[in-house]
Known about the structure:
Layout (H helix, E strand, L loop, with lengths): L1 E7 L5 H9 L5 E7 L4 E8 L3 H14 L15 E8 L9 H18 L4 E4 L5 H7 L20 E5 L4 E7 L4 H11 L4 E8 L2 E8 L7 H9 L4 E7 L4 H5 L17 H7 L2
Helix pairs in contact: 1-2, 2-3
Amino acid sequence: xxxxxxxxxxxxxxxxxxxxxxxxxxxxxxxxxxxxxxxxxxxxxxxxxxxxxxxxxxxxxxxxxxxxxxxxxxxxxxxxxxxxxxxxxxxxxxxxxxxxxxxxxxxxxxxxxxxxxxxxxxxxxxxxxxxxxxxxxxxxxxxxxxxxxxxxxxxxxxxxxxxxxxxxxxxxxxxxxxxxxxxxxxxxxxxxxxxxxxxxxxxxxxxxxxxxxxxxxxxxxxxxxxxxxxxxxxxxxxxxxxxxxxxxxxxxxxxxxxxxxxxxxxxx
Length: 268
């Protein structure tokens, strides 16, 4: 089974987000809408994700125009990130080939059917490398060699489990948030310091959550600055949740009902 966690560049018009998500029908496990980032994270899962992911992508390219987009999160396009990941028992590196095959198939289709430039990431190169080099020293791997007029470009990836996690600081100091993010970055953590309205946030991708989970990142940040609140973006694998003491779940914004496994069992 594969998971696809689509990041699309719209988080302020909920009706529009609902129209896009509706195109994916029964494959959707979770929708996280963030007006400050102006971004929505849509988690899909299934044994055959092709119809759902393609339908959601086509709706996004049709309905989202990034030419006047504004939001805290950096972006390359309307359908900004499309990562495929193996999930379920035995979902480890030996099954990453399935995610790579799904990634390559989707990127080829999106380039041809949607005229959408697609940058590939995964074992070959990391997502931050694509964001840094796109249109500068890196051409799209699939699709046109120039940005789509309204949709920009997409980053299409294959990866292992990832937890997206935000920590809102009590002190409204963007320079502090950026310093903390820089100190956190490493093989297991990607982090940005962002302004979100009148607040600041350390926005993290825990790319090796079995090594560095939400509790560890909370402790690292709170050792430097007071954390006002935490925010899980999307879903978390159950094994990551269970590594955290239950009495910390509320503080870490974790819950059994927000695990991938619970949503799969509940049918989304």
